[in-house]
Amino acid sequence: AAWAPPAGAMSFPDGFVWGAATSAFQVEGSTTADGRGPSIWDTFCAQPGRIDDGATGNPAADQYLRWEQDLDLMVGLGLQAYRFSVSWPRIVPTGSGEVNQKGVDHYRRVVDGLLDRGMHPAITLYHWDLPQPLQDAGGWTARETADRFGEYAAVMFEAFRDVDATWLTINEPKTTAMVGYAGTEHAPALGDLDAGMAAVHHQLLAHGRAVQAFREVGGRGSIGIALNLMPVYAAPGAETAAGNLDAAENRLYLDPVLLGEYPPEAVGPGPGQLHADAAAFEALVQDGDLEVISTPADVLAVQYYGAAGIDSTGAWLQLFPPSPAGWQQVHAEGLYETLVGLAADYPDLPPLVISENGIPDADPQGQIEDPARLDFLRTHLQQAARAVGEGVDLRQYYAWSLLDNFEWARGMTQRWGIVHVDFATQERTPKASARWYAEVCAANAVPS
Ligand code: GBH
Question: Model-level pTM?
Answer without folding.
Answer: 0.98
